[in-house]
Amino acid sequence: MSSDTAIAVNNLSKCFHIYDKPRDRLLQMFARGRKQYFREFWALQDVSFTINKGETVGILGRNGSGKSTLLQMICGTLNQTHGDILTHGRVAALLELGSGFNPEFSGRENVYMNAAVLGLTREETDARFAEIEAFAEIGEFIEQPVKTYSSGMMVRLAFAVAINVDPQILIVDEALSVGDELFQRKCFARIEAIKASGATILFVSHSGSAVIELCTRAILLDKGEKLAEGVPKVIVGQYQKLLYAPADKVASIREGIKSGGLERLELERESKRSAIAVEVSQAADNGLEEYFDPHIVSKSVMSYESHGVLISEPRVLNASGKQVNCLKRGDTYRYTYRVAFSTGAVAVRFGMMIKTLAGIEIGGAASSATTQDAITYVPTGTEIDVEFAFECNLNPGTYFLNSGVVGVVGEGETYLHRLIDACLFRVLPENAITATGTVDFKCISAFTISSVEHN
């Protein structure tokens, strides 16, 4: 393994034995291999990848794709059936926190035991104990048996131990839920500090925007296979296309991802997004008046597979109803699109999202907060014109708009159709602007100068 490598996974596979009846386990013991009383379930099959030191890598995949199984094997809490795993550096895992605690031991005793498992000597744990205790915020309960803890207290203590061992490799499962909002923010701030220190981070996430923002690379798993690996924006696009595909299109989309066909399309799309940035930056300004520039057009539109619904005609209108794509800060605009239903749909909601050119979600809205407030039923042949009014509180720059329609299919809610990068608009520059960043929060500065007399 190279000195720059933190994690190397080669042809990793994991098979579980599935028994239909409890007695089949006993029969299998006596069969001595002459007969098989179980079914094989391959949670992972021949997965390989390498992660270099200092990288932050996200793992994406639908439920049941093998993500958690992979993390458990890298951490050493689950043995592989085939393949090799090599790690270089101290590993801390934030998976099923507290699962290794002894309920009869006190919190203090469990801290020392858990820290030893993570590779700390007693002297190192002594030096870190005060920080662990302060981070966990469980007070005098640190001296009480863990069996007296609430589930939240136990998880907080386990997190405090794992996060304070100065890991060189941090493995995080998105299922992590620790305490209240303030404690969660403290946890994530600590993870960000670990990343800044140069540690390697591998984490499972269902949040495409988090992967795009935090990761240097992403890996897509599905049904135990590694379908793709590469630039986060490209992998997130493939994941979302697979996630919201109709059942009869999933197989063809999987093959497209594995063959590299969808990757080429995504790379072309990203190339067009970069070209858009150049074109828009060269566009002429028409004073500070809003207007429509026919050259500012999204060339990177991505359409999800349709569930009998199609979105069309996305555009931005000003207060007088005219189409514009060069907007003024502070004014209110309407984002509109048309939705055609070629089949009936249940519990229908509409949505929009504003994103940066890099794909980071800034904000958006849904037509209703829950499925209970959604349109109960939309019959076949219906067309609906959707409109979202928004105040342009963005600083000068170029932005994308998404369009989406969701409804209940089977037992859950899913996208009936969605357009990524459906519409492009530009916020016009202004002279002497003091706002910074992406969103204008109407900040007002003030300061007081005090004179100091010198002797």
Topology of this protein?
Layout: E1 5-18, H1 22-31, E2 39-52, E3 56-61, H2 67-75, E4 82-87, E5 91-94, H3 107-117, H4 122-136, H5 151-163, E6 169-172, H6 181-196, E7 200-204, H7 208-214, E8 217-222, E9 225-230, H8 232-243, H9 250-259, H10 261-281, E10 302-303, E11 309-317, E12 326-327, E13 332-341, E14 345-356, E15 361-366, E16 375-378, E17 383-391, E18 397-409, E19 412-427
Parallel strand pairs: 3-7, 3-8, 5-6, 6-7, 12-19
Antiparallel strand pairs: 1-2, 1-4, 8-9, 10-19, 11-13, 13-17, 14-15, 14-16, 14-18, 18-19
Helix pairs in contact: 3-4, 3-5, 4-5, 7-8, 8-9, 8-10
Can you give a write-up of this model?
The mean pLDDT is 85. The longest helix has 21 residues, at 261-281. The radius of gyration is 27 Å and the shape is globular. It is built from ten helices and 19 strands. By secondary structure, it is of the alpha/beta class. Strands 10, 12, 14, 15, 16, 18 and 19 form a seven-stranded mixed sheet that branches. The protein has a six-stranded mixed sheet with strand order 5-6-7-3-8-9, sandwiched between helices. A three-stranded antiparallel sheet has the order 2-1-4, with helices on one face. The chain has two domains: 5-214, Rossmann fold (3-Layer(aba) Sandwich); 286-427, Distorted Sandwich (Coagulation Factor XIII, Chain A, domain 1).
